Amino acid sequence: MKAMATINYSTTILVPLLAAVMIYSVSAKFQRDVEITWGDGRGQITNNGELLTLSLDKSSGSGFQSKNEYLFGKIDMQIKLVAGNSAGTVTAYYLKSPGSTWDEIDFEFLGNLSGDPYTLHTNVFTQGKGNKEQQFKLWFDPTSDFHTYSILWNPQRIIFSVDGTPIREFKNMESQGTLFPKNQPMRMYSTLWNAEDWATRGGLVKTDWSKAPFNASYRGFNEEACVVSNGRSSCPDVSGQGSSTGSWLSQELDSTGQERMRWVQSNYMIYNYCTDTKRFPQGLPQECLAAFYESFDITWGDGRANIYENGELLTCTLDKISGSGFQSKKEYLFGKIDMKLKLVKGNSAGTVTAYYLSSKGKTWDEIDFEFLGNVTGQPYTIHTNVFTGGKGDREMQFHLWFDPTADFHTYTVHWNYDNIIFLVDGIPIRVFKNNEKSGVAYPTYQPMKIYSSLWEADDWATQGGRVKIDWSNAPFSAYYRSFNDQSSCSRTSNSTWVTCDANSNSWKKTTLSDHQYGQMAWVQKEFMIYNYCTDYKRFPQGLPTECKL
């Protein structure tokens, strides 16, 4: 057997591949390792087993499958797709288990008219349930030459790669109730078939049979995997932590790999189920909500801020010695940012839980939610503000129509070139418009990070500082879940350019609907307790310009 080729996308290898590893690793010849299963001669193996072709005509398509079954592995295949007018055709390359509660990991290549790009469709099924589609265009012509499509599947994650560039990662989040394929052995399959009822532009473009036969070509099949035979795996240990496992069993993307994946997703992703709020009106699937480990750094508090539940829960704590806080790894220049918070319960007087975006420097921009604690039984005050060039003084304050300490609620900053909208559980409570044409400063140029902190402010937070913190109730704790920045423009610390999510442009929405204006009017009538735009005593020379527009 030939040795596995060097892994050519950037990964962090947690366990070295030792000589004694019991991993099935081979650069396969098709005659030995796959069998053509249907097509009545339309599938052919040539070139001494090094080339396999599938054909589709009006009578039938064709397909093949691996002789081996795998329970985890890294599978590579070089494919050259149907050239020319491939509309209505699908070339599928995937792993799948049998039965009605099957597992499946999919690459599907959806054909198109000549000159229009293929759509690369990916999906993950567990126990017969999928609905986890992400789709991409490619940055090359996949019909002019062979390109390598890889599935890395281990107990922690599934990574889809194209020519060594990761395009998608699906993590094992079973601890949060998300199914993950880890128990059912799968074979590798590939087929070329007619799917003109849906494949191209939703079925609007049909297959042109005058172009038949359609042909896809395969070479370079490579499997480094745990092969299952008679119920036994070739890998004695699949934990990824022992010397009897291969390096791919514990691989994860390092920062370079993550950056390359973000580049693909920013520039070539055309559909992402994780941003399809119309499809999931009751809330996005749990796996779509960013894990705090990946998205934030705890920056202060000497252990008083912690991340739990596999990265899905973050807590900040305040005691008499110190508070705590965290910040995002990325900077944002426009976006829709959601966070679920459960605030300090009981007597929270004198405490402030802050959740805001801010840039750096003396002329910083800032968009604020601050939750001012109160004595037991008295409502929190939500304090909102907007700073531009280091100048704020645009406070609006509200009470809430629910107990924010009893459960998690979603607080959203929706920031684009036209408006900043503050929302609570999807209900707008405030809009700050871009009135730069009228001389009102607006944050448009400075990228901002997300910050949150729990801290002592008993000199002003509760009843103007008259009520102090009762330290006998310490420690005080605030809780965070379900951070979502899927619809945003952002950059990492080592990037110069801000990139926007090409698939989700909901952050660009510029106006509220009539229904939303009605909701905001209700909130401001019933729950607003301070509005700088009506504070004539504070502005005896006249209200700020934006208050008069």
Describe this structure in words.
With about 550 residues, the protein is mainly beta. It folds into 2 domains: about 10-275, Sandwich (Jelly Rolls), CATH 2.60.120; about 290-549, Sandwich (Jelly Rolls). Helix content is about 5%, strand content about 40%. It contains 4 helices and 34 strands. It has helices at about 30-35, 255-265, 290-295, 515-525, and strands at about 10, 25, 35-40, 45, 50-55, 60-65, 70-80, 90-95, 105-110, 120-125, 135, 145-155, 155-160, 165-170, 185-195, 215-230, 230-235, 250-255, 270, 295-300, 305-310, 315-320, 325-340, 350-360, 365-370, 380-385, 395-400, 410-415, 420-425, 425-435, 450-455, 475-490, 500, 530. It has a 15-stranded antiparallel beta sheet that branches. Strands 2, 4, 5, 7, 12, 13, 14, 16 and 17 form a 9-stranded antiparallel beta sheet that branches. Strands 3-6-15-8-9-10-11-19 form an 8-stranded antiparallel beta sheet. A hairpin with a 4-residue loop joins β4 and β5. The longest helix has 13 residues, at about 255-265. It starts with 10 loop residues before the first strand and ends in an 18-residue tail after the last strand. Residues about 1-25 and about 240-245 have low confidence and may be disordered.
